[in-house]
Amino acid sequence: MRMAVVALLLAGCSGEDDAGRRARLGPSPTFAQVMQVADAKAGARRFGQCAACHSIAAGGNDRNGPNLHGVFGARIAQNRPRFSYTDALQAQPGVWDEARLDAWLANPRRAVPGTSMAFAGVTDPLARADLIAFLRAQH
Ligand code: HEC
Known about the structure:
Elements: H1 2-10, H2 18-25, H3 31-36, H4 40-46, H5 87-90, H6 98-106, H7 108-111, H8 125-137
Helix pairs in contact: 4-8, 6-8
The structure holds heme C.
Heme C binds at residues 49-50, 52-54, 64-66, 68, 71, 76-77, 79-80, 85-86, 88-89, 96, 105, 115-119, 122, 131.
């Protein structure tokens, strides 16, 4: 119980190393708990694995994948009108919120069968949360 209170109080601090955040989260945190310790700066570093296919700066070019500036909160497959999204992605309703991004980044082809995003996925929930926090900050 006391651990949970401490975790809540500390949630939201950034700049802490991964090991400290993982220790606080414990073995089976909820998605909400992981998002509370997400760190956009760590996400910026982790974005290196996306950068071959995605630019992120405002006005950046589409590459193999679409530019991702402003994608958080945008309608799925509509953030970059001139990018050739797959029919599979365009058929997805709704917007890129935290939960949708989490499922997508964990395994794009399981989340959206038929997608052209040729990326195995990010297995670590904390790494996904950091990436989501980074995308959320790029507006
Ligand atoms: C090998 C190239 C490649 C890599 C690596 C890659 N992506 Fe993608 N991504 C794509 C492609 C292609 C699409 C469009 C998919 C479609 O239309 O089905 C896409 C689509 C997306 C979208 C949806 C964009 C929109 O406008 O709706 C997001 C969000 C995204 N990628 C995030 C990421 C993140 C974050 C990473 C790194 C963890 C990553 N991608 C790694 C190629 C890639």
